[in-house]
Design a protein that fits this description.
Helices cover about 35% and strands about 5% of the residues. The protein contains four helices and two strands. Strands 1-2 form a two-stranded parallel sheet. The protein is globular and about 45 Å long.
Length: about 150
C-alpha cells in the first residue's frame, strides 16, 4: 500500500472510512465515526494528522452533514469538473478522457480525477501542460480557505 504524505507535497483530506452515502446519515455519532476512523488510521500509518478538509463520497450530502463537518472543524469541498473515470474495467480512451477534461475546464475549477484510472495517469502530463498553455495555474485547496 502507498500512502500520500505532506512531506511529498500532498494535501490529504477526509473522504470517510466506508465511503457511504453521507446524506443518509443524520446522527452525529455515526457521522463522526466515519470521519474519525479514517483520520485515526491515516495518523497511525503516517504519523501525521489529516488535513481538516472533507469531500463527501459521491458528492452526496445533507445540510445536517455540512453542519456536522463544520462543527468537527472540517472545511467541505466539492468538485466542479469530473467524469466517469473510476471503473477500472471500463476505462475511457485517451482521446475521450482528454477531450472531456479539456472541454470542461473553467476558471476556478476543482477537478476530480480518480487515481484508480489508468487513463488519467497516462494523459496527466499532456493535460496539465495543455491547461497551462491555456493560462491555467494549479494551486492547493488551502489557498481557498481563509486563514
Amino acid at each position: 500500500m502507498y500512502v500520500l504524505t505532506r512531506a511529498e507535497g500532498h494535501t490529504v483530506g477526509n473522504h470517510t472510512y466506508h465511503h457511504p452515502d453521507m446524506s443518509s446519515i443524520s446522527d452525529k455519532e455515526t457521522f463522526a465515526k466515519e470521519m474519525n476512523d479514517v483520520a485515526a488510521l491515516y495518523q497511525q500509518i503516517t504519523g501525521e494528522e489529516m488535513t481538516a478538509f472533507y469531500r463527501p463520497p459521491q458528492g452526496k450530502y445533507s445540510t445536517e452533514n455540512l453542519k456536522m463537518a463544520q462543527e468537527m472543524g472540517y472545511t467541505t469541498f466539492f468538485w466542479s469538473l469530473a467524469y466517469v473515470d473510476w471503473y477500472q474495467d471500463k476505462q475511457p480512451t485517451h482521446e475521450e478522457a482528454y477531450d472531456k477534461l479539456l472541454s470542461r475546464i473553467h476558471p476556478g475549477a476543482i477537478v476530480l480525477l480518480h487515481s484508480t484510472s489508468q487513463t488519467n495517469g497516462e494523459i496527466m502530463d499532456e493535460l496539465l501542460t495543455k491547461w497551462e498553455e491555456m493560462g491555467y495555474t494549479f494551486k492547493p485547496l488551502s489557498d481557498l480557505v481563509e486563514q
